[in-house]
Amino acid sequence: MAEAAAALARKGLRAHCRRLCCGEGSRGRWGFQSIHSFYRFCSTGMAFESINKPVVDRIIRVDHAGEYGANRIYAGQMAVLGRTSVGPVIRHMWDQEKEHLKKLNELMISYRVRPTILLPFWNITGFVLGAGTALLGKKGAMACTVAVEESISHHYNNQIRTLMEDDPEKYKELLQVIKKFRDEELEHHDIGLEHDAELAPAYSVLKNAIQIGCKAAIFLSERI
Ligand SMILES: [Fe+2]
Ligand SMILES: [Fe+2]
């Protein structure tokens, strides 16, 4: 009985919130809920006028998954090579990935985006990929870095193009974040090349295989 009353109260609060925040009731249930939507979030008071919510959801979800995966890759590399001469180089890149993930976590909350259900899978595969390539040696780890960072920066460029074509002003915050991250991923890519990534055993095969994996990870993380 008490549970039913509590559930009713929660339902009432949510309905009240939707009326206040989303205009429900005054313009019909889906009045503001077309593809381009007006959102004013109850918890933050933030307003996102006319954003393309499905597109923004997809962008934030996949970027969060990517940064999460990158953190796990560098964790795997550090587990193997942390005490070698390239330890500080990998540490520097990992520190930047930690900042990227922190920012994506914040964006997920403010834009109310759920993470991909594949995070536990990326947790393991990211670490195995980082540690596995690091076991090939310093050059193997750097080849992995080049392959992954090239894929991610290409992916960020696609997102920048999508948001710019829609409305650069509307997506100013997101664009700033993605451009900064894109530049830092390119820096990681160049660090990999400077540390002899191309001299890794079977560099082309390794790079292609990793990039096919990245494409699959991006495809899946955008959708589920
Ligand atoms: Fe990153
Ligand atoms: Fe990176």
UniProtKB/TrEMBL annotation:
Membrane topology type: Peripheral membrane protein
CDD domains: DMQH (cd01042)
Keywords: Iron, Membrane, Metal-binding, Mitochondrion, Mitochondrion inner membrane, Monooxygenase, Oxidoreductase, Ubiquinone biosynthesis
Cofactor note: Binds 2 iron ions per subunit.
Pathway: Cofactor biosynthesis; ubiquinone biosynthesis
SUPFAM superfamilies in the record: Ferritin-like (SSF47240)
GO molecular-function term, one example from the UniProt record: oxidoreductase activity, acting on paired donors, with incorporation or reduction of molecular oxygen, NAD(P)H as one donor, and incorporation of one atom of oxygen
Matching InterPro entries: Ferritin-like_SF, Ubq_synth_Coq7
GO biological process: determination of adult lifespan; regulation of gene expression; regulation of reactive oxygen species metabolic process; ubiquinone biosynthetic process
Example of a GO cellular component annotation carried by this entry: nucleus
Cofactor(s) listed: Fe cation
EC number in record: 1.14.99.60
One protein family per Pfam: COQ7
Binding site for Fe cation 1: E67, E97, H100, E185
Family, per entry: Belongs to the COQ7 family.
Function text: Catalyzes the hydroxylation of 2-polyprenyl-3-methyl-6-methoxy-1,4-benzoquinol (DMQH2) during ubiquinone biosynthesis. Has also a structural role in the COQ enzyme complex, stabilizing other COQ polypeptides. Involved in lifespan determination in a ubiquinone-independent manner.
Protein name as catalogued: 5-demethoxyubiquinone hydroxylase, mitochondrial
Organism, as annotated: Eublepharis macularius (Leopard gecko)
